[in-house]
């Protein structure tokens, strides 16, 4: 080998080393970049799942709120109606007083109109008296406070009502207190 | 140059070419990877912003719902009360009938108890009559249907009430209809 050849060979070897380390470096960078890509993809996938979950939560919440609001609107009068029922009971009892003359008869007639006005206002809000006398006893609507045995009346029928029951739309505010035939 | 040397040189040149193209390839891959990283980072940042925006929207919605529900609860009786007011007016008029004897007096006393029971139930729900006679005229609460000039009465004072006004909590359901002194 000539001297020149030796120098050339050394230079080539050096160049190869440099190139090899360049390749190594860039492969190192590439593997780091790929790691970063994997990390970002995982984070993005998490974030996207979270967005979907949040949207589902939001939709569920909205639906629940809508149902709550509907229910609140439907039964909004319940509290006031419950408080009015005792006065309504008293009103009915007061109207059952017997009129002894024309004057008291006219007073009672006026009061009966007032009573019917109140019942009408309650009805508009969905309040209705529960049917009782003459219908089949139904534990959802009637509370039996007395039981009798009358052979000439139908079995399980309501014979008498002691206190009116009321419902607000489909909700029973209080059952009617009744006498039932066995 | 010997033949061997020539072969060696060609092999080296080929190897260098291969290495160079490897470097180019890996740099190409790296730049693609970096592009992908930039793209993913942008998407992740978008997704994170969206999560924050969604959370803020959700919180706003919850707050609005809470306020709506509070308001709905506060004024829940409004509809029924509005429907009851005409019956209440009639009730008051009916109670103003003069009792001619003990019998009618006792009927009216019973009815007065019923009336007070209704007023009590309404009060529990936040309904109250608006003060009028003897207080300063206030257009928020009073509707002047008559104006007079009485020198011996205070200026701008309510002298007489023709129809009761009512409010539900802080909300005027209807103003009192009154006579005012100029």
What does this structure look like?
- The structure is a homodimer of 182-residue chains.
- With 182 residues, chain A is an alpha+beta fold.
- Chain A has 3 helices and 6 strands.
- Chain A has helices spanning 3-74, 78-95, 102-124; strands spanning 127-129, 142-148, 158-163, 166-168, 171-174, 176-181.
- In chain A, β4 and β5 form a beta hairpin.
Task: Give the structure's gist in a few sentences.
Two copies of one chain form a homodimer. Chain A is 62% helix and 16% strand.
Could you say which overall geometry of chain A the principal axes of the C-alpha atoms support?
A: rod-shaped
The CATH H-level superfamily of the largest domain in chain A is Head domain of nucleotide exchange factor GrpE
The tally of domains of chain A stands at 2
Please state the CA-atom Rg of chain A, rounded to the nearest Å. 44 Å
The CATH topology of the largest domain in chain A corresponds to: Nucleotide Exchange Factor Grpe, Chain A, domain 2
Structural category of chain A: alpha+beta
CATH domain class name of the largest domain in chain A: Mainly Beta
Oligomer: homodimer
Organism (chains A, B): Fredinandcohnia quinoae
GO cellular component, one term (chains A, B): cytoplasm
Pfam family, one (chains A, B): GrpE
Subunit structure (chains A, B): Homodimer.
